[in-house]
Design brief:
Blueprint lengths: L17 E5 L3 H13 L2 E6 L4 H10 L3 E3 L7 H4 L3 E4 L8 H8 L3 E3 L1 H7 L8 E6 L4 H14 L4 E5 L5 H5 L7 E5 L2 H5 L13 E4 L7 H4 L2 H9 L8 E5 L3 H9 L7 E5 L8 E5 L2 E4 L11 E5 H4 L7 H16 L4 H10 L8 E6 L2 E5 L6 H9 L4 E5 L9 H7 L3 E6 L5 H10 L5 E3 L5 H13 L7 E4 L12 H17 L11
Parallel strand pairs: 1-2, 1-4, 2-3, 4-5, 6-8, 6-9, 7-8, 9-10, 10-11, 11-12, 16-20, 17-18, 17-20, 18-19
Antiparallel strand pairs: 12-13, 13-14, 15-16
Helix pairs in contact: 6-13, 6-14, 16-17, 18-19
């Protein structure tokens, strides 16, 4: 068996390497496709493979083993390397079997790092956190692009890193969004370890505890993003967990800890002075001066003015400034940026009531940000809580919640949270198995409590897969129901957006 320590380049000898790719989602397919191009001997082991990918894999000559979790295909036990989908839990029988046999288990990120020099070895900037990863990744890339750099936002954001590595045009920088699943799989030493230019942890709250097994394990996975960072380790001054991660990180000598917050920044931080975003980290006279980056008014048109979005902007600015992007390019990028859909997206104003879609708030920490952005809210909440406790969120925001509408198959956590922390707030439960009717019924319930100046906010604080295919479908159904009410003149004029 060859030494895997020699496989550190696209131009290494990958021929004949026996690889089992476990799972055939977006990242699994990118891994299989890449490995075939490298000349490896690839077998796919998956519980489900869609028809299009099955056809393409057939053309590539990749055998597919259709297996369930409790089966142990020979292709897996005979592999020299296993490349696992980030969705497979650490205790999945296939991964346990591989580790027990001494077979190396990689994620797609490690594979991409090893072969990153196919065209040009771009610098990597890493972004993680419980919430705000995608927006911050996009913002950072937008700022770098504004400065004239060739950049791609990749990873958990939707585009596999392996696709960018193989892009014939090449890139100067990859801004890589990493989930806790992907980080869990990263090697911390040896040939597969990443050496990023910079890295950021935006915030930490309990999430995916069912996958990781504990809050400590989840946080340990997130902390790995800082390992071997060379220039900047960006953290949230207002989140002591991220500060602790930076303090304990094994970074390259000379790497700087750069904080961001909504307060007045210290000499190595970015923050706010009145209504101006400023940089006191990346200038020589940082002990006595600050550089103006943008104003809060610049954030307004892009929907970035809320506290949690402003933090994302500051984190992105820290990463961009660490790469040498000038303040004027940071400002111009902020002014031209637009959020993706389903992130505090204003759908309509009807009869003085705002309808906002933040379906991307798939855990309590994300919903915290959107609830904080509005003074009076009818809150549509519920779905799959994945072990997270919604109670503290209800307790903190009870003063701004006019009423709540619980959706989802399991509404007990919402019911219990309001009974414990806000028994006087009206709570309506939408009890239906008809996915198509959920949002219509939710809006009917919300309308009973909405008045001019109130925001009807879809910020479920939970995953969507109990009733919808994903958070995007959930948000789309909400928007459709809002517009349908406006079209029928149910409560006044409408100004649809989105």
């Amino acid at each position: 068996m060859r030494s895997l320590e020699t496989l550190t380049s696209w131009h290494s000898d990958w021929s004949g390497l026996r690889v089992a790719v476990l799972g055939m989602g977006v990242t699994g397919f990118a891994a299989a496709d890449t490995l075939v191009e490298l000349g490896a001997s690839v077998t796919v082991v998956a519980e489900r493979v869609d028809d299009e990918r099955r056809t393409i894999l057939g053309v590539l000559g990749v055998p597919i083993v259709d297996a369930v979790a409790d089966e142990l295909p020979a292709a897996l036990t005979e592999a020299e390397v296993v490349v696992a989908s980030p969705g497979l839990r650490p205790d999945h029988p296939w991964l346990v079997a591989a580790r027990d046999r001494g077979i190396a288990v990689w994620g797609d990120i490690e594979l991409a790092w090893r072969v990153r020099d196919k065209v040009a070895a771009a610098e990597w900037i890493l972004v993680t956190g419980t919430n705000g990863k995608t927006t911050t990744t996009q913002l950072t890339a937008h700022m770098l692009r504004e400065a004239g750099l060739r950049v791609a936002p990749v990873g958990n954001i939707g585009t596999p890193v392996l696709d960018a590595v193989r892009d014939p045009g090449g890139f100067d920088v990859l801004v890589v969004e990493l989930s806790s699943f992907q980080l869990h799989a990263l090697a911390e030493g040896g040939a597969g370890a990443l050496w990023p230019h910079s890295a950021a942890v935006l915030n930490i709250d309990d999430d995916h505890l069912d996958w990781h097994g504990s809050a400590d394990a989840y946080r340990a996975a997130k902390a790995k993003v800082y390992t071997n960072a060379r220039v900047a380790a960006v953290y949230n001054v207002e989140d002591p967990v991220t500060m602790g991660m930076v303090e304990e990180a094994d970074v390259v000598e000379g790497c700087r800890a750069i904080g961001f917050s909504l307060g007045t920044p210290g000499p190595s931080d970015l923050g706010l002075v009145e209504d101006v975003l400023v940089d006191r980290a990346f200038l020589d006279a940082r002990h006595s001066r600050a550089l103006e980056l943008a104003s809060l008014a610049d954030l307004e048109p892009a929907g970035l003015r809320s506290p949690h979005m402003t933090r994302n902007v500051l984190a992105a600015a820290a990463l961009a400034r660490g790469f040498g992007v000038e303040p004027i390019h940071v400002r111009d990028a902020i002014r031209s940026f637009r959020l993706d859909r389903h992130r505090t997206e204003l759908i309509a104003v009807q009869g003085g009531v705002r309808f906002v879609d933040d379906s991307k708030a798939t855990n309590p920490h994300a919903a915290e940000g959107s609830l904080s952005a509005f003074d009076r809210v009818v809150w549509i909440v519920g779905g799959l809580f994945k072990g997270a406790d919604v109670g503290p969120l209800v307790e903190r925001h009870a003063r701004r919640i006019v009423a709540a509408v619980a959706i989802g198959v399991d509404r007990a956590p919402v019911r219990e949270a309001f009974a414990r922390h806000a028994p006087g707030i009206p709570l309506v439960e939408v009890d239906t198995a008809d996915t198509g009717a959920v949002m219509r019924l939710a809006l009917e319930a919300a309308a009973e409590h909405a008045a001019p100046g109130v925001t009807v906010l879809l910020a479920p604080a939970a995953a969507s897969m109990d009733q919808f295919s994903n958070y995007a479908e959930r948000g789309d159904r909400f928007a459709e129901a809002v517009r349908e009410r406006g079209a029928h003149g149910d409560d006044g004029s409408s100004l649809p957006r989105g």
